[in-house]
C-alpha cells in the first residue's frame, strides 16, 4: 500500500517537486523540468462538449459581445447549475427569481431583459453525471494526457457546490466521477503506463490543513522559480478508484463543516483534491519516451454568505474569511479580464495564491457556478451570474507538460524495477541446483546450504520489492490490439460505481435541512440543541453509508469465507460491461502483479506480513485502513500461493532425487540432499499452515474490529465536537484578551500622560529655582575634569557652552525679574487708574444729580416768573397800589434775575467740570487699556522666557548625558589601556 510523506507538492500548476521517501510508493526528490508544448495529444477532442463549452457568453441585456480577439482563444469553461427550490423555500412561499431559458441562457423572472449566456446552463433536474459530461470530462481527459486541469464549484452557501463536487451514493459528484474516469482512461490506454497520486487539503480561516494527514496543520505556501507549492503536504499513490475515494472519505472526516441558518452541513473551508498523473510509454525500453506530468485539481469552495445570515461568533468569523477570499477571487478574475490591469492581487488570499497557476497558466479550467433560484437570494444569484460572466473572459492556453528529466517518479520506479529484475536474473543464474553439488564434502554442503538460504532470502526480498513497485504502476489489462482506439477514449464513457466504491460516498450527503427532516428542524428552530442534534444526526447518517457497507462485507465474509480479493471480483459491475473499471474495484490486481511472482520468498514475506497482520487488527476505523486490510489479505494469499508453488517444485525435485537414490542406494550425498529437501518441505508446510491460520485469524479479528468501529466512530465524533467547542472557546478567549490588552494600553497611556503633566510642572518649578543650574553646571564642571587629553577640548567647549547657558539663564532671570517688577507697577497703576475712574464716576453721578436738581429749580422759577408777569396786567383804579407793587416786583424780579444768572453760571461751570471729568475718565480708560496690553505682553514674554528656560534645561540634560557617555568611554579606554 502506497502511503508516503512528501515534503513538497506542486499546486494547480502541475509543477511537481517531489521528495524522497523509503517506501516504493514514496515520491522521490526531483527537480523535474517539464515544458509546455502546444501540440496536444489529447484524449478529449472528440468530446461532445468541447464545441459548446467553448462558445462565449454574452451579456444580453447590454447587447455587448465579447471582443473578437477573445473569441479566437480558449477560455475558461463556464457552466451554471440550478438546484431545485428546497422544501423549506417552498414552505416559506419563495418564488423562482432566475430560470434556465434553454441550454445556454439564464433569465430573470421579473425583468426579462436581464439575461446572461454561458457555455451551458443546467436546469434543476439535470443529473450530476450530465454536468460531468459537459463541464468536466474534457478537463479530466486533458489531465490524463498531460494538461493541467482545474474544476471548481462556486456559489452562495447552500446552492449545491458540495452536491455537485462530492455528491452522494444516489448521485456521485464530479470528484468521484473524475476519479473513476481517470482509471477508465488508463484501462483504455494500453500503450502507456501510469502512476497516480493524490493529495487533499482545505483552506480554513486562511490556514492550510492537510486532510490526509491530521498532523499537517497550518502548512506553508511556498514559491520557487517553478511556481507555488504547499510545503510538507502528504501525497498518496493510489491503486484503484476505491482506494482514491477512501482517501477522500477519510479526508472529509477532518474537513471543517458546521451548521448555519442556510445549510445544516455547510462547508466552512475551501477544499482542493489534487490528482497528480504521471504517464510514460509502456514497455521495458521506454527510456527515451517523454513522461507526461499533470495535475487535476478538483475544488469545492465554501459558499459566500450574505449579510442576511444571522450568524455569530465562530460562524461569523469563518464567514468573513470565506467572503474575503471569494472577494479576492472575484477581484483576481476581474483583473485577469481587464487588459489595462497590470497587477493581479493573487497574494491577497491563500485561495488565489494556490489558484494562480490555474488561472494564469497553461491548463484547462472549468467553473461550475451553482445557483439557487429562490427569490430571497435574487441579489446573491445575480452576483454569482456576474462573477461567472467575468470568469468567461479569462484566456487560457492548454498545453501538455512533458518531463524530460529522468527523475520523474514513474521513471524512477521503472528504472528500479529493471535493476531489480536484472539482479534477480543474476541470482537465478548464480544459484546451483543441489544435484550439481555431488563432489562436495559434508562441511561444504552445510556452507553451501547456508549460502543457498541466504541467496534465497535475497532473491525473495528482490521479488517482493519488484512486486510492490510493479503494483504502483498502473497499466491497462487490454492489449493494444484489443483496444478500441489507442489514445482515444469513448466520449460517452459511462461510470458505474461498484458497491465498494459507492461505500466511500456519503449515504445521503447534506440533504437540505428541510428535506424529510424539515419538520424536525423547522418546528424546533432556534434552539441550539436542536440544530446540534440535527447536525449530529446528519453526520451520523452520512457515515452510515460506509458503516453499512462494512457490516455487509462482514456478513459476506462470514457466509462465504472467501478472500476480499475474491469479493472484489464479485463486485465486478455486471451493470455495465463496457466500463472497464467497473469490472473490478481493485485495479491494482489487474496490474502487472502476476509477472514473475512465482519465486517470492515466503520467509521474508511472512515475517513482514506477520507484523503487518498484527498491526492491522487496529486499523479498521477508516476506509483507508480497510484498504490496507484488503491489501494485507491479498499479500497473505499471494504468499500462500507462492509457497504452494515452491513446495510443488521441491516435491518434484524430491521425486527425482528419490528415483536417483533408488538407482544408487550407496550414494550418501543423495541421501543427504533428500534429507535436507525433506526438512525444507516440512518447514514450508508448517509455514503454509501458519499462513492459513493467519488468514483465518485475520477474518475473525476483522469481524470483532468492525463492531468496535461503531464505538470508535462515536468517540472520534465526540472528540471532534469537543475540539470544535474548544476552538470556539479559544476564539472567545482570544477576543477577550485583545479587549483586555486594549484596556490596559489605554490605562497606561492615561497614566503616562498624567506623569508627563506632573513632570512638566515639576520641571517648570525647578527651572525657576536657578540654583539648580549652578549645581548642574558645577556637576558638569566636576565631571568635565577628565584626565583624558583627547577629550579635553570637547569638555572645554561643553563647559564654555554651559557657562554661556548659565549666563543666558541669569540674564533671562534678571529680565524676568524686571518684567515682573514692571508688571507689578503696571498692575498698581492700573488699579490706581481704576480707583480714579470709579471716583470720577461717583462725582459725575453727583454732578448730574445736582444738574437735574438745578434744572428743576429753574423750571419752577420760570413758572413763578410767568405767573408774576400775568398778574402785572391789572385795571387803572388800582394804579397807585399797583405802582408800589410794581416797584416791589421790579426789585423782586431783579433779585430773581441775578439769582438766575448765578444759577446759570453755576450750571455752565458744572457742565464744564462734567466735560473735564469725562475727558479725564476717557483718558484713564485709555491708559488702563494700554496698561492691560503691556501686562499681556509681559505675560507672553514671560511664557516665552519660560519656554526658553525649559529648552535650556533640555540642552543641559543632553550635555549631562553626553558628558556621562564620554566619561564611561574614557573609563573604558582607561580600562583597555591598563
Ligand atoms: N442539483 C440539486 N438537486 C437536488 N438537491 C440539491 C441540488 N443541489 C443541492 N442540493 C441540495 O441542497 C442542499 C445544499 O447543498 P450543498 O450542501 O451542496 O450546498 P453548498 O453550496 O455546498 O453549501 P455550503 O457552501 O454551505 O457548503 C443539500 O441538501 C443538497 O442535497
TrEMBL record:
UniProt superkingdom: Eukaryota
Gene Ontology MF terms in the entry: ATP binding; microtubule binding; microtubule motor activity
Residues the entry annotates as binding ATP: 155-162
Cellular component annotations (GO), alphabetically ordered: microtubule
Coiled coil: 403-472, 633-687, 736-864, 921-948
InterPro entries assigned to the protein according to its UniProt record, in alphabetical order: Kinesin-like_fam, Kinesin_motor_CS, Kinesin_motor_dom, Kinesin_motor_dom_sf, P-loop_NTPase
GO BP: any one term: microtubule-based movement
Comp. bias (Polar residues): 1-10, 46-55
SUPFAM superfamilies: P-loop containing nucleoside triphosphate hydrolases
Region (Disordered): 1-68, 560-594
The Kinesin motor domain, residue ranges: 75-394
Composition-biased stretches (Low complexity): 562-576
Alphabetical UniProt keywords: ATP-binding, Coiled coil, Microtubule, Motor protein, Nucleotide-binding
Pfam families xref list: Kinesin
Sequence similarity: Belongs to the TRAFAC class myosin-kinesin ATPase superfamily. Kinesin family. KIN-7 subfamily.
Name listed for the protein in its UniProt record: Kinesin-like protein
Amino acid at each position: 500500500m502506497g502511503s508516503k510523506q512528501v515534503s513538497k507538492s506542486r499546486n494547480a500548476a502541475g509543477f511537481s517537486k517531489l521528495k524522497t521517501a523509503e517506501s516504493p510508493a514514496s515520491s522521490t526528490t526531483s527537480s523535474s523540468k517539464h515544458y509546455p508544448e502546444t501540440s496536444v495529444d489529447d484524449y478529449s477532442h472528440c468530446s461532445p462538449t468541447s464545441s459548446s463549452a467553448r462558445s462565449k457568453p454574452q451579456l444580453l441585456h447590454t447587447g455587448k459581445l465579447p471582443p473578437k480577439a477573445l473569441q479566437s482563444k480558449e477560455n475558461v469553461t463556464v457552466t451554471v447549475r440550478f438546484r431545485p427550490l428546497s422544501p423549506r423555500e417552498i414552505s416559506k412561499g419563495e418564488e423562482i427569481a432566475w430560470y434556465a431559458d434553454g441550454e445556454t441562457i439564464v433569465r430573470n423572472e421579473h425583468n426579462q431583459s436581464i439575461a446572461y449566456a454561458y457555455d451551458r446552463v443546467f436546469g434543476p433536474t439535470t443529473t450530476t453525471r450530465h454536468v460531468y459530461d459537459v463541464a468536466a470530462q474534457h478537463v479530466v481527459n486533458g489531465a490524463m494526457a498531460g494538461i493541467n486541469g482545474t474544476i471548481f464549484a462556486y456559489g452562495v452557501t447552500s446552492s449545491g457546490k458540495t452536491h455537485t463536487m462530492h455528491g452522494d451514493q444516489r448521485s456521485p459528484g464530479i470528484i468521484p466521477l473524475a476519479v473513476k474516469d481517470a482509471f477508465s482512461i488508463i484501462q483504455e490506454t494500453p500503450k502507456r503506463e501510469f502512476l497516480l497520486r493524490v493529495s487533499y487539503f482545505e483552506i480554513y480561516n486562511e490556514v492550510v490543513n492537510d486532510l490526509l494527514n491530521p498532523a499537517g496543520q497550518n502548512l506553508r505556501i511556498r514559491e520557487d522559480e517553478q511556481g507555488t507549492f504547499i510545503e510538507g503536504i502528504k501525497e498518496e499513490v493510489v491503486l484503484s478508484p476505491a482506494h482514491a475515494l477512501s482517501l477522500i472519505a477519510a479526508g472529509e472526516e477532518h474537513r471543517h463543516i458546521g451548521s448555519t441558518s442556510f445549510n445544516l452541513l455547510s462547508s466552512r473551508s475551501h477544499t482542493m483534491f489534487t490528482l497528480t498523473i504521471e504517464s510514460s510509454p509502456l514497455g521495458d525500453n521506454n527510456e527515451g519516451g517523454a513522461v507526461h506530468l499533470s495535475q487535476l485539481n478538483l475544488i469545492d469552495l465554501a459558499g459566500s454568505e450574505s449579510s442576511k445570515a444571522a450568524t455569530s461568533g465562530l460562524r461569523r468569523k469563518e464567514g468573513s474569511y470565506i467572503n474575503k477570499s471569494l472577494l479576492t477571487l472575484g477581484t483576481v478574475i476581474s483583473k485577469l479580464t481587464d487588459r489595462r490591469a497590470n497587477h493581479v492581487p493573487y497574494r491577497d488570499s491563500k485561495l488565489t495564491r494556490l489558484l494562480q497557476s490555474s488561472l494564469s497558466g497553461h491548463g484547462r479550467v472549468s467553473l461550475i457556478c451553482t445557483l439557487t433560484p429562490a427569490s430571497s437570494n435574487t441579489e446573491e444569484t445575480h452576483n454569482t451570474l456576474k462573477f461567472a460572466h467575468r470568469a468567461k473572459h479569462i484566456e487560457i492556453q492548454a498545453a501538455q507538460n512533458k518531463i524530460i528529466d529522468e527523475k520523474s517518479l514513474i521513471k524512477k520506479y521503472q528504472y528500479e524495477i529493471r535493476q531489480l529484475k536484472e539482479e534477480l536474473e543474476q541470482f537465478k543464474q548464480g544459484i546451483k541446483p543441489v544435484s550439481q553439488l555431488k563432489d562436495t564434502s559434508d562441511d561444504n554442503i552445510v556452507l553451501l546450504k547456508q549460502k543457498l538460504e541466504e541467496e534465497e532470502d535475497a532473491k525473495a526480498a528482490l521479488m517482493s520489492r519488484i512486486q510492490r513497485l510493479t503494483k504502483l504502476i498502473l497499466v491497462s489489462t487490454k492489449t493494444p490490439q484489443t483496444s478500441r482506439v489507442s489514445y482515444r477514449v469513448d466520449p460517452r464513457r459511462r461510470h458505474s460505481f461498484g458497491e465498494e466504491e459507492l461505500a466511500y460516498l456519503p449515504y445521503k450527503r447534506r440533504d437540505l435541512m428541510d428535506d424529510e427532516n424539515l419538520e424536525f428542524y423547522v418546528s424546533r428552530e432556534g434552539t441550539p440543541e436542536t440544530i446540534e442534534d440535527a447536525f449530529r444526526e446528519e453526520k451520523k447518517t452520512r457515515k452510515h453509508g460506509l458503516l453499512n457497507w462494512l457490516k455487509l462485507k462482514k456478513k459476506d465474509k462470514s457466509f462465504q469465507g472467501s478472500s476480499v480479493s475474491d469479493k472484489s471480483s464479485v463486485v465486478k459491475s455486471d451493470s455495465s460491461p463496457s466500463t472497464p473499471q467497473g469490472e473490478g474495484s481493485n485495479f491494482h490486481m489487474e496490474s502487472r502483479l502476476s509477472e514473475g511472482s512465482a519465486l517470492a520468498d515466503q520467509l521474508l514475506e511472512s515475517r513482514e506480513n506477520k507484523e503487518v497482520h498484527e498491526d492491522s487488527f487496529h486499523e479498521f476505523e477508516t476506509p483507508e485502513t480497510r484498504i490496507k486490510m484488503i491489501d494485507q489479505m491479498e499479500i497473505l494469499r499471494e504468499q500462500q500461493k507462492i509457497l504452494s508453488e515452491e513446495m510443488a517444485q521441491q516435491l518434484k525435485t524430491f521425486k527425482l532425487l528419490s528415483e536417483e537414490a533408488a538407482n544408487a542406494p550407496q550414494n550418501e550425498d543423495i541421501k543427504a540432499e533428500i534429507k535436507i529437501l525433506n526438512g525444507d518441505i516440512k518447514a514450508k508446510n508448517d509455514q503454509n499452515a501458519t499462513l492459513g491460520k493467519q488468514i483465518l485469524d485475520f477474518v475473525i479479528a476483522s469481524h470483532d474490529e468492525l463492531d468496535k468501529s461503531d464505538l470508535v466512530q462515536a468517540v472520534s465524533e465526540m472528540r471532534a465536537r469537543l475540539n470544535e467547542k474548544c476552538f470556539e472557546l479559544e476564539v472567545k478567549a482570544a477576543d477577550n484578551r485583545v479587549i483586555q490588552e486594549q484596556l490596559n494600553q489605554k490605562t497606561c497611556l492615561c497614566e503616562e500622560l498624567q506623569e508627563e503633566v506632573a513632570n512638566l510642572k515639576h520641571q517648570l518649578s525647578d527651572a525657576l529655582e536657578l540654583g539648580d543650574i549652578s549645581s548642574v553646571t558645577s556637576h558638569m564642571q566636576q565631571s568635565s575634569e577628565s584626565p583624558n587629553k583627547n577629550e579635553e577640548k570637547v569638555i572645554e567647549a561643553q563647559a564654555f557652552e554651559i557657562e554661556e547657558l548659565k549666563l543666558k539663564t541669569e540674564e533671562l532671570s534678571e529680565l524676568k525679574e524686571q518684567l515682573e517688577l514692571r508688571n507689578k507697577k503696571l498692575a498698581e497703576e492700573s488699579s490706581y487708574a481704576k480707583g480714579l475712574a470709579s471716583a470720577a464716576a461717583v462725582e459725575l453721578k453727583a454732578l448730574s444729580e445736582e444738574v437735574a436738581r438745578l434744572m428743576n429749580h429753574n423750571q419752577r422759577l420760570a413758572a413763578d416768573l410767568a405767573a408774576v408777569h400775568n398778574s402785572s396786567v391789572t385795571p387803572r383804579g388800582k394804579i397807585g397800589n399797583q405802582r408800589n407793587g410794581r416797584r416791589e416786583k421790579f426789585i423782586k424780579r431783579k433779585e430773581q434775575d441775578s439769582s438766575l444768572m448765578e444759577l446759570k453760571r453755576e450750571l455752565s461751570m458744572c457742565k464744564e467740570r462734567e466735560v473735564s471729568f469725562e475727558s479725564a475718565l476717557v483718558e484713564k480708560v485709555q491708559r488702563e487699556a494700554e496698561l492691560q496690553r503691556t501686562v499681556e505682553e509681559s505675560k507672553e514674554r514671560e511664557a516665552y522666557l519660560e519656554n526658553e528656560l525649559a529648552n535650556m534645561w533640555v540642552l543641559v540634560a543632553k550635555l549631562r548625558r553626553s558628558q556621562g557617555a564620554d566619561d564611561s568611554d574614557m573609563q573604558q579606554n582607561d580600562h583597555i589601556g591598563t
